Amino acid sequence: MKTREPFNTWSHVFGAFASLFFIYLFFTHTQDRSPTGILALLIYGLSTFAMFSSSAIYHGFNGNDLQIKRLRMVDHMMIYVVIAGGYTPIAAFVLPDSMGKVVLYGIWIIAGLGILKKSLWMTAPSWFSTLLYVLMGWVSVLIFPVIWRETTPLFSYGIITGGLFYTVGAIVYALKKPNIWPKTVGFHGLWHVFVLGGALTHLMSHVYYFSNFLEK
User: Do 99 and 146 meet the contact criterion of CB atoms below 8 Å apart?
Assistant: First the structure.
């Protein structure tokens, strides 16, 4: 079956397989098998896999308008999930207990509200959803001093770099510019590249830090 948007599909098929590889690395490099550690890292890894998988299915599937509309809705919902999933290991292992609980519960509540909004307001303008994604992502600015103090410079720089990938990509998506190679890539494909860069940077940073952290 011919894919509807080949570049967007296969770029995120790659992301889905990369996510599975990083989940494998999480567990092969972690000696601490505590339920909390396994659950936090599994939530993060699977949320990233879910985001890339739903995106690849949506952009590749050739169906009727209603089917594509529903797949698009799920695709956008998974962005809320992956953002919240990315905070989960940090809230569980890096932040002080009380702050960690506030961030963990707060970010998942926002993700839930975002998913509810997406299901009830399917025609919401793209800039509105993009703004909410960016605001959720930049909650990390508020907790960054703690991340810097409690982790390592390399992990902190990885979080910053990944956040910049996502932010620049969101700007490209909202402005629909630059629209390079519109027949094959376009602004949407460029957005996918930035999402891929942000996700892989964050996954690599988490593997580096949390595997070592959990061994202590």
Answer: yes
Rg of the chain's alpha carbons, rounded to an integer?
Answer: 17
Q: What are 121-127's contacts with CB under 8 Å, separation 24+?
A: 122/69, 122/73, 126/173, 126/174, 127/174
Residue 1 maps to a domain: no
Residue 144 near residue 155, CB atoms below 8 Å: no
Nearest to 197 by CA among 159, 155, 166, 153: 166
Output DSSP code: residue 178: -
On the question of pLDDT at 189 being above 70, the answer is yes
Q: What is the CATH number of the domain that holds 19?
A: 1.20.1070.10
Residues 190-208 pLDDT 10s: 999 999 999 999 999 998 8
Provide the number of structural domains found in the chain. Answer: 1
Q: Contact 114/57 with Cβ under 8 angstroms?
A: no
Q: How many CB atoms lie within 10 A of CB 130?
A: 18
Place of tokens 């996510």: 19
> Is residue 98 one of the residues assigned to a domain?
yes
